Amino acid sequence: MNIYLEAFSIFFKIGAFTIGGGYAMVPLIENEVVTRRNWIGREDFIDLLAVAQSSPGILAVNIAVFIGYRLRGIRGSVVTALGTILPSFLIILAIALFFHNFKENAIVERIFKGIRPAVAALIAAPTFTMARSAGINRRNIWIPVVSALLIWLLGFSPVWIIIAAGVGGYLWGRCKHKIETKHKE
Asked: What is the pTM of this model?
């Protein structure tokens, strides 16, 4: 199968059948491009995901663009981005055309209330997977916990948390390198 058509169909399918936004799509995208097709490695996926999260815009589109670019450059980016965006666009268009017919429907309201817990689980699952892949363990679990609490309870801007984490990681890496260099001598 043509790589462009295959990538488009994968991202279209994920975009069409994933409820809950970008974070709910992450495990599906990872399964398709890392596990099933081996287009990129797990470590590369985690790195692309980190860049996609820190880039402005929609997470699912960002990750699709980065994966498409990794696969086939600019054309790959366009194909995967369209595959991700098009289902949502078509669904929203259909809802907009027929919304007035079912906006007060009790059954539709109950369906959406029932979907909420599943969406929460779809968002939680990649968080634990990414934590494991990123090497989160008993010694460093405090970093994401403190970061989340600073953002949630104290209203810190995530931008400052990202900057502090970047600086901290850089300084830790330098110290670790110096220690390893001393031990080798």
From this structure: 0.61
